[in-house]
Amino acid sequence: MKKFFLLLKTVFIISITNAQQGVAINTDGSSADNSALLDIKSTSKGILIPRLTAAQKTAIASPANGLLIYQTDVSPGFYYYTGSAWSPMSSTGPQILWNYWTTSGNSLTDSTINFIGTTDAQPLIGKVHGQQVFRFSESMPATIVGYQAGNANTGKYNTFFGYQAGAANTTGDGNLFVGQMTGYANTTGRQNMFVGNYSGVSNIAGNYNQFTGFQAGQYNTYGSENTFNGYQSGWSNTTGSWNHFSGMYSGNSNTTGNWNFFDGYKAGLFNTTGGHNYFSGYSAGYNNTTAHYNQFIGYQAGYENTTGTENQFVGPQAGRNNTTGNYNFFEGHSAGTSNTTASENHFVGYHAGLNNTTGSWNYFNGQYTGAANSTGNWNFFEGYKSGFSNTIGGHNYFSGYSAGYHNTTAHYNQFIGYQAGYENTTGTENQFVGAQAGRNNTIGNYNLFEGMYAGGANTAGSSNTMIGYHAGYNNAIGSYNTTLGYNADVATGALVNAMAIGRDRPFLVVTTGLVNLHDEEELRFVIGHELGHVLSGHAVYRTMMLILIQLAQRIAWMPIGYLGLRAIIWGLEEWFRKSELSCDRAGLLAGQDVDAARRSLMKLAGGPQLSELNPDAFREQAHEYDAVPDLRDSILKVLQLQGNTHPFAVVRFAELDRWATDGSYESILGGDYPRRDTDRDARFTDEVRNAANSYRESWNRSEDPLAGIFRGVAETGVRAASGLFDRLGGNNRGGGSSSGGNGDN
Fold first, then answer.
1. Residue 409: in which H helix or E strand, if any?
2. Contact 310, 293 (CB under 8 A)
3. Rounded distance, CA 554 to CA 267, Å?
């Protein structure tokens, strides 16, 4: 047996030698591979590595580098000695012998020594199906994660996250693209931030842009320094720059517009090339396309604006329907909301200019001011509901609470004060100044009412001048009236009056009330009366009398001087009353109708009901007035005349009737009267003396007990006046060319 073993041993040694140092262990007798020192081959068995516990492994003394064992207990598996420590060769699952990581997870890793990456300067690249999915490089400071993200990138300081994010970027640097295809076409654009799928997808060379939101700035190519924040905000922008769009769809259609600020849902949605616009609010500037320099702030402010430029709309729906109107300023809820093409309007206040469409050059300031205005131009309305109902009226100025409230189509009115011209509808060219001045005027024209409640009841009266508190308050339809002073002429609703104004170029004023009261022949008498004032120069001397009255008021503290002046004034007043009698004669000469003259005087005294008036009774009344038997009645009569420039109508009737029947009237008609060519040589003092003689005759005829007493006083006053006028007025009976005044009928 021993001999047989020794024989086999000898044969084995010989086999190793013959195999040229390669040993083959197999069952088929094949030789060892030339590259292998040991070639073990089997189809049914394996090789068994020494099996040790963890403790036994650790107990191996001076293990050689590469020593291999199989650990049977804690974390079982193959371990090899690295020269300094035992390292696991594998764990459960597929073996990754070259980097020691498995696809099903790893254990016992040491963060100080275990990592995925490179130990040299080469970039770490991850690929899927041969396409880059991430790239980390030391030499190119960029962070790129995503399929084909930054695929061609050579730019520095870029961060691309997402599918094809920054896929075409070459030298663009400092970009942050986050989201699917964000910055996809960017090549040289730098320092852009695109966050959101497809945001900035078309950007090529645009710089310094910030797009946040799905498809924000999707078609931007070369536009720079834009901020688009919101779903599809700045979606169509191509080369527009310096824009700020914030809100879903804000600036969605903008292409090349620059310097725009759109803030709010769909703000500036359809803006394409318009620039320098500021839209803030839900759908503010929604339809703006190419307009510039607009500021719309508030819900749907400037919603319909397309090409209107340089407008400022502030407030919900302010200027909502403006399309092409320019240079408008609307501030307040729905201010100018209906404006379409009108320009250069200023509306401030809730519903100010609410219905204005094409009216331009208007200024409305206050709640509901000019709310109904549609096409009216050049209006100024200031105050709560001032000009509220105006539609097409233009060139109006209304200032005050509800001033010109009902004005609709009237033009060229000026209403200033609380409810001034409140009821005016179509009355034009009126000026009402004061609280409720001309409040009830509706269709009256060419009126001047100044003072609180002045002309307050006027409705259809025209060409009136009423100045003072309550001046002409009760006049309703009377026209061509002039009332000056506190409560002046407020007794009747249709004033009956006529006056002559001026001297060198005089004109007559006849009220509507007087025209309505008289027939044609009676009006001829009235006009002749007024022309008598003009031809006699009464206006000048009445002005003199007013000056003396003012002087008397100033020296009232001097009893002697005051009484002297009052005597002169009393004489002048009596002279002026007598001048009315002279002008009655002039009126009769002009009309040459005694009955018409009598009817006119009776109407002035008792109204239009001539059927109730009897000329004989009227004449008898005049006689009774003149022949008062009682001294007390006489004194009362004198007091009633103080300050009056007109005698009572019955006195005028009696005097005119006497003159018409005593032969004087027929004498003049026959040609016996002074001629104008001799009038220049007449002195005013002579005329006064002649008048005094006439007055003396009338006083001598009077049966009044006081007539004799006052006869001397009046004569003294007339003589004093003649001397005074001789000094002030000279010999020219007409007076200076600048003098003026009026004589009332």
1. none
2. yes
3. 74
Strand order in the sheet with 68-71: 51-52, 68-71, 77-81, 86-88
Any idea what DSSP says for residue 564? H
Instruction: Determine the pLDDT at residue 485.
Output: 74
Q: Containing H/E element for 709? A: helix 707-729
Contacts of 728 (CB under 8 A, 6+ apart): 544
Q: Residues 127, 128, 130, CA angle at the centre, nearest 5°? A: 75
Q: Which amino acid is at 56?
A: Q
235 or 689, higher pLDDT: 235
| Least confident interval from 142-151, 473-482, 576-585, 627-636 | 627-636
How many other C-beta atoms are found inside a 10 Å radius of the C-beta of residue 550?
9
| Other Cβ atoms within 10 Å of 49 Cβ, number | 10
Closest by Cα among 266, 273, 230 to 251: 266
- Nearest C-alpha neighbor of 709 from the set 647, 631, 655: 631
Least confident of 323-327, 334-338, 630-634: 630-634
pLDDT on residue 531: 86
The CA distance from 243 to 543, in Å, is: 75
Of 505, 506, 480, which is closest to residue 742 (Cα–Cα)? 506
Q: CB of 369 within 8 A of CB of 384?
A: yes
Handedness of CA 356, 357, 363, 365 (dihedral sign): positive
pLDDT of residue 511: 73
Question: According to the model, what pLDDT value does residue 405 have?
Answer: 96
Does residue 19 surpass a pLDDT of 70?
A: no
pLDDT at 712: 53
Q: Which residues are catalytic?
A: 530
Is the C-alpha dihedral spanning 543, 549, 553, 557 positive or negative? positive
State CA 516 to chain mean position distance: 47
Q: Where in 462-593 does DSSP place strands (E)?
A: 465-467, 482-484, 498-501, 507-510
For the chain, the structural domain boundaries read 1-41, 58-93, 125-225, 518-744
For residues 141 and 29, give the distance between their C-alpha atoms in angstroms, rounded to a whole number. Answer: 61
Q: Which amino acid is at 525?
A: F
483, 488, 490, 494: which is closest to 518 by C-alpha? 494
Instruction: Please check whether residue 740 is in contact with residue 544, taking contact to mean a CB–CB distance below 8 angstroms.
Output: no
Tell me which of 697 and 314 has the higher pLDDT.
314
Q: How confident is the model at residue 733 (pLDDT cuts 50, 70, 90)?
A: very low
In the three-class reduction of DSSP (H, G, I as helix; E, B as strand; rest coil), residue 559 is classed as helix
Amino acid 191 reads Q
Q: What is the pLDDT of residue 389?
A: 95
**Cα 230 from Cα 249, distance rounded (Å):** 7
State the Cα angle at 195 between 193 and 201, rounded to 5°: 80
Query: Of the segments 56-60, 568-572, 609-613, which one has the largest average pLDDT value?
Result: 56-60
Nearest 5°: the CA angle 203, 205, 210 is 55
Does residue 92 register a pLDDT over 60? no
> Sorting pLDDT into bands at 50, 70 and 90, what band is 541?
low
Rounded to whole angstroms, the Cα distance separating 282 from 217 reads 20
Q: Which residues contact 256 (CB under 8 A, 6 or more apart)?
A: 238, 239, 240, 272, 273
Q: pLDDT of 77-87, one tens digit each?
A: 899 999 899 98
Neighbour count for residue 280 (Cβ, 10 Å):
21
The closest of 181, 187, 172, 225 to 200, measured between CA atoms, is 181
378: nearest Cα among 364, 388, 389, 368: 364
Token reading at 327: 């240079």
Tell how far CA 163 is from the center of its chain: 51
Sign of the dihedral through C-alpha 693, 698, 700, 704: negative
Q: Could you write out the DSSP letters of every residue in 189-221?
A: --S-EEESTTTTTT-SS--S-EEESTTTTTT-S
Percent helix, strand, coil in the chain, to 5, is 25, 15, 60
